[in-house]
Amino acid sequence: MNSPSPTRKIIHVDMDAFFASVEQRDNPELRGKPVAVGGGHRGVVAAASYEARKFGVRSALPSVTARRRCPDLVFVKPRFDAYRDVSGQIRAIFADYTDLIEPLSLDEAYLDVTEDRLGLGSAKAIAEDIRRRIRAETQLTASAGVSCCKFVAKLASDQNKPDGLCVIRPHEAARYIASLPVGRFHGIGPKTAERLNALGIHTGADLQQLSLEELTGRFGSSGEWYHRICRGIDERPVRSERQAKSVSAERTFDSDLSDPAALHAELDRVAGLAWQRIERHSVAGRTVTLKVRYADFQLISRACSSPEPIADLRRFSAAGHHLLERLLPVPRGVRLLGLGLSGLCERDEALPLQLGLAI
Questions:
Q1: Do the strands 246-257 and 45-48 form a parallel or antiparallel pair, or are they unpaired?
Q2: What residues act catalytically?
Q3: Fewest C-beta in 10 Å: which of 54, 129, 193, 292?
Q4: Per-residue pLDDT tens for 204-262?
Q5: Which domains does the chain have, with CATH numbers?
Q6: Which residues are recorded as binding Mg(2+) (predicted)?
């Protein structure tokens, strides 16, 4: 007779205001000041320090709005190479505790520490040691959530931010979730939260009152997910080989563009930058997506797919120009262009497509 599997021990580690904190660490003059990474005259905020967040400045906020909310806001240009270097340091720390690491971005990851590799005694002790080492080795702070599944661990990591730790034990999960607004749930965005609120569902406790049949009747397949997570049931494993779903680049302009020649020229630049990232990931893909943000901040996207993986810049760029041409003339100025590749596969999988070339 097989013995039951041990209860999983999952840690979600989330760096505190990561990009902004790196900037404040590397430039002492920024410490204690409200800082926004990105933005500038025309862009949007990529990250905000906690000093800026007190004024309602957050990521994805137009820089004009951010400046209005916080007149003393300091904008700094992003340094992604620096952020990637620090992220590599943090991943190296994680690897001392477990091989089961699932990065979600440069600044957060799930860790499965069911196996106590270093004999620290508990998942809480492991999380504490990881946070201690991050502070000592990077001079940055991280928050962590500890629980029996990914969903609850991610909720917990946000509970005591910044520089906090929260442990939710298995028997506490359902009660903890019941106390939270549904807008806090990972995977439930603002629009879905509004829809739930309109139905009188404001908290996890409200969700727990509804049967599986009621939830699936109202929300389809998502209803089954809501039924599980509001009870703290999440059987997704930590996947150490999590692959990117897409690779892209985008550019925000200092002034709105409407001239077709200028738009095509800028798209060439964006395509080149995106292709550098695609090559760095050693991937090819079948779907090219063009993203356009107009002067009034309306965002649209257009996509086209190829039956074969797109494995060179020429075809990638040509697909982007084809999509752009279908939008011309633009109805109003364009402030941002983006181009991405999805439907990814390893670059080696696309190599047979080259066999027909003359040599």
A1: unpaired
A2: 108
A3: 54
A4: 999 999 999 999 998 888 889 999 999 999 999 998 866 667 889 988 888 899 999 99
A5: 10-16+81-169 (3.30.70.270), 18-79 (3.40.1170.60), 173-229 (1.10.150.20), 246-349 (3.30.1490.100)
A6: 14, 107
